[in-house]
Amino acid sequence: MVPRSSPLVASRLDEFRLIRDLHRRFGRTGPAVVCGIGDDAAIIRPSPGRHLILTTDLLAEGIHFNLGTATLEDVGYKAAVANLSDIAAMGGIPHYVLVAVALPASRRPAEVEQFYQGLMGACRSHGVQLVGGDTSASLRSVFISLTMTGSVEPRRALTRNGARVGDLVYVTGTLGDSLAGLTLFATGRTPRSAGSAGRKRFLLHGDRYRRALMLRHLRPTPRIGEGRLLSTQRLATAAIDVSDGLSGDLAHVCEQSGVGAEIEASALPLSPACRAYAAAAGLDPVGIALRGGEDYELLFTVPPHKRATLERRAREAGYRFSRIGTIRPKRIGLRLKGIDGVSRRLEILSYRHFQAGQTTQREAAWSR
Length: 368
What we know:
CATH topology of the largest domain: Phosphoribosyl-aminoimidazole Synthetase, Chain A, domain 2
Oligomer: single chain
Distance between the termini: 30 Å
């Protein structure tokens, strides 16, 4: 709730007043920032002996988010997480963010503040400082562009091209929760598979499962600590964040590394809420895990001789790492070993921009 005394509570947007108020509310920075919000560009004193990480994301209303099912505060939080997750996948530490926003004149200043509250709520949890950006008018929709910087020690960055045949494939956390949460938002109802044990289980836990899945969609967790562990301890050979879906993101790693992979359906980590949702909706939970994006978990590969060290360090840190497959020769391609033990070609079900005729996670919210 925005207090009525806030300078941002006004009837119309004013660019320069907006910039001044953003500077006042969110422009606190540390000594490494020589010049921040309010000038032509930010000036940062670089950290000695570290490599710079740069990442950017563009979010468009109606493609990446729907303001009928998410608030601008939710959108701001998730926009930050998308960039934080990119830096986590590189094994880095995030530092600074620049934000460009285009808004229709119908948006109230209080809504803009909500967006920045969500954004900085995610950023401040990881010590990220807002140092600049841009504002613009748009005709109808909201457009958001974030650029975030981070750093990593030389020769410690995790990339997509280091996987080798025989490496083990791991993921953090659980998969498919965000897609299940998005579908619950889109349909606005509990799945209907009348009389099924899955529906009864979902109804038994009711609000708790629904809230858990919706929260995983709106407020995902960037795996900064996990990425740092993999990087600083030299445990991973390759990594990527699961933003578009496990099947497609695994394909990116394999393509960049020149390898194939076999994933085991029985090993995919699924939350009780996601399993119950799938059973209630009459869906294959494995399909949800393979297709669902925006979980922002890390997918990474580890040499077999480092498995024991990885799993010991994960236990010590309280991280959840699940081994889900093995890197194979390129000629094998991408394979999925089913629950029945039969290995089949792994279909790429992930989100792809500009893919004609494709029904995707992001489109699902607007097409129902």
